[in-house]
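Appendix B. Chain record.
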Amino acid sequence: MGTFTYGPTTTGVAFDDRLLAHVRAVTITKLRRGESFLFTWLTDGEPVTQHSVWMHPAVAMTFEVEAAAGRPLNMEWIDLLTKSANSGLGLTPLPEPEGT
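Structure tokens predicted for this chain:
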């Protein structure tokens, strides 16, 4: 499991390594272009909780992804995640498209 940490005092959040590698690619591209956006995800539990953070280049963040997850990135998945990031709800973890 990879970890996403946002801000200097935030506890990291665990995500699947492959998903996090793709979220990182989308995030880096958007922030490099000066595009801030919302990142929203759900955590399991009772109740299921929705979390959102405003992704901005001035906020420190780290992405820790296991090196074994380094298979080539799925460009179709990156496109879906980018479209999600451009939506009103913001970037949300989506499943990898099958057969790509």
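Further analysis of this model is presented in Appendix C.
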